[in-house]
Specification:
By secondary structure, this protein is an alpha/beta fold. The chain is 43% helix and 20% strand. Strands 1, 2, 3, 4, 5 and 6 form a 6-stranded mixed beta sheet that branches.
Length: 169
């Protein structure tokens, strides 16, 4: 059944196109936060505004997941994620931070690129597929360099929506 759902929209979307997870209003280019707690609060507020979710509940889910281990996977990138009641699909929020923050990442490097991923509680496979897609894109050094160099939120969104080949110039 899930195959049928994904075939409609996903059939024409390149694997690297993440526009099904992000909306232009959920992409931020110069977020100013002093620490991980403030970051989660800010991202949760954005997610709450765009989805109607309770932002406190989102912060709680992110904190619960983070207690299992940091979602900062190295290279200044983090993908905090969680499953939240009240969603009917996987959604994301992306923020490029004005200044990197400590994230207890596996390489101990501060984080400046954050892709929040939220899923419905019953979205097991969909959650994992979305996480894998985002992770694959954010492990691509050339793509990450383009994210750091993008001049605006529109430019950032266009990069995520482009689905360009990983080695494209």
């Amino acid at each position: 059944m899930n195959e049928d759902v994904n075939a409609g929209a996903g059939a024409v979307r390149a694997a690297d196109d993440l526009s099904d997870l992000l909306a232009p209003e959920t992409v931020f280019s110069a977020l100013i936060v002093p620490n991980k707690k403030a970051l989660f609060q800010h991202l949760a507020a954005i997610a709450g505004k765009s989805t109607g979710l309770d932002s406190k509940m989102v912060v709680e889910r992110l904190a619960e997941r983070e207690r299992l281990g940091s979602t900062g996977f190295g290279g200044g990138v983090a993908i905090p994620h969680g499953k939240v009641e009240g969603l009917d699909r996987v959604v994301g929020v992306f923020a490029r931070l004005s200044a990197p923050i400590d994230f207890a990442a596996i390489d101990d490097m501060p984080v400046d690129l954050v892709f929040l991923l939220l899923s419905p509680p019953d979205a097991g496979v969909e959650h994992l597929k979305a996480l894998a897609r985002v992770s694959r894109r954010l492990r691509d050094r050339a793509f990450v360099a383009k994210l750091r160099g993008a001049g605006s939120e529109d430019a950032l969104y266009a990069l995520f929506a482009s689905g360009e080949a990983r080695n494209a110039a």
